[in-house]
Write a structure and sequence with these properties.
InterPro entries: SP1917_dom_sf (IPR023204), UCP033199 (IPR014580). This protein is mainly alpha-helical and 121 residues long. It is built from seven helices and two strands, in the order αααααββαα. Helices cover 60% and strands 3% of the residues. The protein starts with a helix and ends with a helix.
């Protein structure tokens, strides 16, 4: 399933700060921690906690968020379906990167082992 230009634009202008609290709620509801969430975000983006907080405070868009990120070279190993889209079939790079993050958060919330989430095992 391919994304539409309208869908891609909606993701691009959405702020990371508007979604971040939902990530926290999702993982904590399933017994995981904010620290584990930050570990996953750091693995994908290279952002440390200070940079992440600055980006949240500045209410950057996902477009800006991922422009500033240094995407993990193993991010391409993130595969599967998230939000109705097969990640490896998404053509728009930004949308793919946002779905990478969504998939990692989903795996964390589902109780997957951290080494599997971080594609190190």
């Amino acid at each position: 399933m391919t994304t539409t230009p309208k869908h891609d634009e909606r993701i691009a202008v959405m702020t990371f700060a508007s979604v971040y609290p939902h990530y926290i709620t999702k993982v904590e509801k399933k017994g995981r921690t904010k620290e584990e969430l930050h570990q996953v975000i750091t693995w994908l983006t290279g952002f440390n906690d200070t940079t992440l907080q600055t980006l949240i405070n500045n209410r950057v868009t996902f477009k800006s968020f991922f422009e500033k990120a240094k995407l993990n070279p193993d991010a391409h190993l993130i595969k599967g379906v998230i939000c109705g889209y097969r990640i490896e079939e998404i053509e728009t790079q930004l949308t793919k990167e946002v779905r990478y993050l969504d998939k990692l958060v989903d795996e964390l919330a589902k109780g997957r082992k951290m080494e599997k989430i971080l594609r190190s095992a």
